[in-house]
Design goal:
Layout: H1 2-33, E1 38-39, E2 41-47, E3 76-82, E4 87-97, E5 122-124, E6 133-138, E7 141-152, E8 159-164, E9 180-188, E10 196-205, E11 220-225, E12 260-270, E13 276-281, E14 286-287, E15 290-291, E16 296-301, E17 308-313, E18 326-327, E19 340-343, E20 352-357, E21 361-373, E22 388-393
Parallel strand pairs: 1-10
Antiparallel strand pairs: 2-3, 3-8, 4-7, 4-9, 5-8, 6-7, 9-10, 11-12, 12-21, 13-20, 13-22, 14-15, 16-19, 17-21, 18-20
Length: 395
């Protein structure tokens, strides 16, 4: 019995020694053969839009340009990473998955589509001679390669690869908002996607867009008066007086031998994008059944001794500040020539345009000058009239 036990012990020692010998022989070889790819350093994915892949316009329905922040259906992506080692790189695989770990099952993110990627838009900081082009694409996989692997020696600054962002070359984001997706990056030393040498995963996410709404109401600030006040920009201070205007000498008396003038003002501000019209409406000066003849609809100069009543924009008045408004024909008195006036009594029922703008008016002030002339035969009396100014904005 003792001899058998000793024999068994020696046999066990033999097998144990043989096991450890084989382990010493084959372990280094297996470790070398089982070496894993190096991890890419400082890797990131920059996307032009985090909007989901169904979004191509803003809340108002305005189209968002491909490659812009509001277009999740036609995005651009830029990969950046530092190579962990020098050596040949011939091909790269970019695999889009719902989970990050290489070697595990890859499920494509819902709605994501890389089928419309046709070229590498940018490849910088790679070694001279590097020229990747798209090899194959599927709904969630972009493979790029170059004809001959190039030795990469840059291990200090990030290399860059950019795809999409164009109307005909783009990536479509996942169609679910607030969803994370991953891109597994694999670099190969050959151009056939066989010998993986470097790898790393980057992450990105779609995000719900914040749709802001703010309301701007139609604005019109219009005032008329006979006393000028500074507009105090940007408030466009309104004119504010009784609107009483005396035409004549200090006692309001007209003379057949002298012309008398007086000015009133209007001030306007509006956000009417299609412009504004200032109109006047009224009658000539009257006293009972008597009146002072309106000067007419064709501009004419003042002629003392002849009955005349008219008005016009006084562009010579330093208080007339037109930046946006333009006087209409026959009502732009002033300038280098002799001042002229016009007036239509039909304006009582058909107001006449006095000045117009083509768009928004921040703050304009108009000075209107009136002329009153009489003849020696003009009947005595107190003559008066009311002129109404009307602002008509078009939004």
């Amino acid at each position: 019995m003792g001899k058998i036990s000793a024999h068994i012990v020696r046999l066990a020692d033999f097998f144990l020694a043989t096991f450890f010998l084989l382990l010493l022989i084959f372990l280094p070889t297996r470790l070398v053969g089982a070496s894993s790819p190096n991890q890419l350093i400082s890797r990131s994915l920059t996307v032009t839009s985090s909007a989901d892949g169904l979004i191509t316009s803003d809340i108002a329905g305005n189209p968002a340009a491909p490659g812009s922040g509001g277009n999740g259906a036609e995005t651009g992506e830029t990969f950046s990473f530092i190579l962990p080692q020098t050596g040949n790189i011939g091909s790269i695989d970019l695999l889009y998955c719902t989970t990050p770990l290489p070697g595990t099952t890859c499920t494509a993110p819902t709605g994501l589509n890389t089928n419309n990627v046709h070229a590498v838009q940018n490849q910088t900081n790679w070694a001279a001679g590097t020229s990747f082009s798209v090899s194959t694409v599927t709904v969630n996989d972009i493979k790029i390669s170059q004809a001959s692997p190039v030795n990469q020696t840059n291990t200090s600054t990030p290399v860059v690869l950019t795809f999409g962002g164009l109307a005909t070359d783009y990536i479509t984001n996942p169609t679910t908002p607030n969803t994370t997706f991953f891109v597994r990056i694999s670099l190969y030393s050959d151009n056939a996607f066989t010998n993986e040498v470097d790898q790393g995963t980057v992450a990105s996410s779609t995000a719900t867009q914040i749709n802001l709404t703010a309301k701007v109401q139609e604005e019109l600030a219009f005032s008329v008066g006979t006393t000028y006040v500074s507009p105090n920009s940007p408030t466009c201070t309104p004119l504010n007086d009784a609107g009483a205007l005396q035409l004549g000498d200090s006692n309001g008396i007209l003379s057949a031998s002298q012309a008398y003038f007086a000015n009133s003002y209007f001030r306007v501000s509006t956000n009417a994008t299609h412009g504004l019209v200032i109109e006047y409406s009224g009658n000539t000066l009257t006293s009972g059944s008597n009146n002072i003849t309106a000067i007419g609809t064709t501009e004419a100069t003042s002629t003392p001794g002849s009955p005349q009543f008219g008005l016009g924009m006084d562009l010579t008045d330093p208080d007339n500040s037109f930046t946006y408004l333009t006087p209409t024909t026959n009502y732009g008195l002033g300038g280098a020539g002799t001042p002229e006036f016009a007036f239509s009594t039909a304006s009582i029922t058909s107001p006449v345009p006095l000045a117009t703008s083509n768009g928004i008016i921040v703050c304009d002030t108009g000075s209107v000058r009136y002329i009153g002339n009489i003849a020696y035969s003009t009947p005595a009396g107190i003559y008066n009239t009311t002129i109404t100014y009307i602002a008509i904005p078009t939004y």
